[in-house]
Write a structure and sequence with these properties.
Bound molecules: 6-O-phosphono-beta-D-fructofuranose
CATH class of the largest domain: Alpha Beta
Number of strands: 11
EC number: 5.3.1.9
Number of helices: 21
Shape: globular
Number of domains: 3
Structural class: alpha/beta
Function: Catalyzes the reversible isomerization of glucose-6-phosphate to fructose-6-phosphate.
Helix content: 40-55%
Oligomer: single chain
Largest sheet: 6 strands, mixed
Family: Belongs to the GPI family.
CATH architecture of the largest domain: 3-Layer(aba) Sandwich
CATH superfamily of the largest domain: Glucose-6-phosphate isomerase like protein, domain 1
GO molecular function, one term: glucose-6-phosphate isomerase activity
Distance between the termini: 60 Å
Strand content: 5-15%
Strand order of the largest sheet: 1-2-11-10-8-9
Catalytic activity: alpha-D-glucose 6-phosphate = beta-D-fructose 6-phosphate
CATH topology of the largest domain: Rossmann fold
């Protein structure tokens, strides 16, 4: 089945949402809470060890009814079924989209997924136990993951998020082509106890191959056999073999798994090395639970669906251009960067599924940073700026190591959403003019947020959280009538960079627009001086 091609703005629900928006656009959440002191009961979802409170949004019951009607008008249920049953919904690349297959329970796994997981398990266990050794017979102490985009962000995020589950192996991530970082890492490590994991679905990505070349030479300079120290994860096995990787050291990836959705596959090898295969399986299991929730829960209680609809409400009706994600735990520092790829590479599209330019906004801009750090950086703008930034606050009830400090962290977590919603009145409009700065101290509140409160950051809950955002992204792309699983814009950049690289190497700049030619010539002229 190909996905339906409905312009969402032509649905009945969209028209009604537009009218409803004019009715409620100036309504203050503070008033809604006053009118209905049990409002939170209408707008929260409790699922497993997740509590999602979405009551601090500029919504009424009617808003949710209409948003759900929008999902129904475009037959979101059919879209979810098409995704989960492996229809070829990545039509522009003629591919299925089956990252959810990677996290199915063993009894439901396909043979190739089961075989790849077995291969990962055997390999990670033998490296962790020290049975598999480098050329000089020493066990590995360090792992370098070389990859970029989806071949880096997801695995790196999970490795950092599960730092408390880490074993003795130290996993390092190299993505950018920044030689200073590479030199720094080489100086820190012993080549003979280092394992390199090259991760590239295409095995043609300039950054990854160039960085791998440097580490390959480093291993050779240290008198080591590269086949004892480099393994690869790729769907382009011939190219990996050509690079000198032995077939048994190549872990598969498949066309039906997009780079930004691939951390669940062997792309997660470095993560599994860091935390052990059993924890990697728990991560998959947590994601699978979210898949079940997404597939089987009515839209009104369906976390990814509700979060996606709220985001559409702000993006397409209020015209708020960005949204933030603020996790209150340092271990999720990478989450905003990871979500930027998932969300913006997926839904940064302006042509609809019929091939016409869209006449409405699509992909939101997502950004963020951990709390409380972000409170001391950009929250001033959240509270008093002219822009409204709907924000997801993500917090955990139990820290890994119990400590009184956690209450302090969480006090901030709760205080921010309260302040954003309620604001604070100044007293400048009274006769009391004792504080000449009162006008500057007022903040009006009415700034929306979702609170995602999770029991504890574990491999399982992390899997569920990441799958939640994947599905949220899918729902939005589906409703916006765009193709969420290609990324032609990024690929074009890769082609141009390759061309320019050849020109720089040949010291000869070819035909470009005058700005690019000017910059390239300036670079060439000055780099050798
Ligand atoms: O950044 C663009 C992109 O195509 C991503 O989709 C992908 O995750 C990344 O490049 C890396 O690609 P590869 O895994 O093929 O090296």
């Amino acid at each position: 089945m190909s996905l339906p091609k409905n312009n969402p703005t032509e649905t009945q629900a969209w028209q009604k949402l537009r009218e409803h928006f004019y009715e409620v656009q100036f309504v203050k959440m503070q008033e809604l809470f006053k009118e209905n002191p049990t409002r939170v009961n209408d707008f929260n979802i409790v699922w497993n060890d997740f509590l999602v409170d979405f009551s601090k949004n500029r919504i009424t019951g009617k808003t949710i009814d209409l948003l759900v009607q929008l999902a129904e008008d475009v037959d979101l249920k059919a879209g979810i079924n098409a995704l989960l049953s492996g229809e070829t919904i990545n039509e522009t690349e003629d591919r299925k989209v089956l990252h959810t297959d990677l996290r199915k329970k063993p009894e439901n796994q396909t043979e190739e997924v089961a075989a790849a997981l077995k291969q990962m398990q055997q390999f990670t266990e033998s490296v962790i136990l020290g049975d598999l050794k480098g050329s000089t017979g020493k066990a590995f102490t360090d792992v370098i993951n070389i990859g970029i985009g989806g071949s880096d962000l997801g695995p790196k995020l999970v490795t950092e998020a599960l730092a408390d589950y880490k074993n003795h192996l130290n996993v390092h991530y190299i993505s950018n082509i920044d030689n200073d970082t590479i030199e720094c890492l080489k100086n820190k490590l012993q080549a003979e106890t280092t394992l390199v994991v090259m991760v590239s679905k295409s095995f043609t990505t300039l950054e990854t191959i160039s960085n791998a070349d440097i580490f390959k030479n480093w291993l050779l300079q240290n008198g080591l056999k590269t086949q004892d120290h480099i393994v690869a994860v790729s769907s382009n096995i011939p190219e990996a073999v050509k690079y000198g990787i032995e077939t048994q050291n190549i872990f598969p990836m498949w066309d039906y798994v997009g780079g930004r959705y691939s951390l669940w596959s062997a792309v997660g090898l470095s993560t599994a090395l860091s935390v052990g295969f059993a924890n990697f399986e728990k991560l998959l299991n947590g994601a699978n639970k979210m898949d079940q929730h997404f597939a089987n829960t009515p839209f009104k209680e369906n976390i990814p669906v509700i979060l996606a609809l709220l985001s559409i409400w702000y993006n397409n009706f209020f015209c708020f251009e960005t949204e933030a994600v603020v996790p209150y735990v340092d271990k999720l520092k990478m989450l905003p960067a990871y979500l930027q790829q998932v969300i913006m590479e997926s839904n940064g599209k302006s042509v609809d599924r019929s091939g016409s330019p869209v006449n409405y906004e699509t992909g939101t801009i997502v950004w963020g940073e951990v709390g409380t750090n972000s409170q001391h950086a950009f929250f001033q703008l959240f509270h008093q700026g002219t822009k409204i930034i709907p924000t997801d606050f993500i917090g955990f009830i139990k820290p890994f190591y119990s400590s009184d400090l956690h209450d302090l962290l969480m006090a901030n977590f709760f205080a921010q959403t309260e302040a954003l919603m309620n604001g604070k009145e100044g007293n400048y409009h009274t006769d009391d003019d004792t504080d000449k700065n009162a006008v500057y101290k007022e903040f009006k509140g009415n700034r929306p947020s979702n609170t995602i409160l999770i029991n504890k950051l574990t491999p399982e809950s992390l899997g569920s959280l990441l799958a939640l955002y994947e599905h949220k992204t899918f729902v939005q792309g589906y409703i916006w009538n765009i193709y969420s699983f290609d990324q032609f814009g990024v690929e074009y950049g890769k082609v141009l960079a390759n061309n320019i690289k050849s020109e720089l190497q040949a010291n000869e700049i070819k035909k470009h627009d005058c700005s690019t030619a000017f910059l390239l010539n300036h670079y060439l002229k000055n780099k050798s001086e």
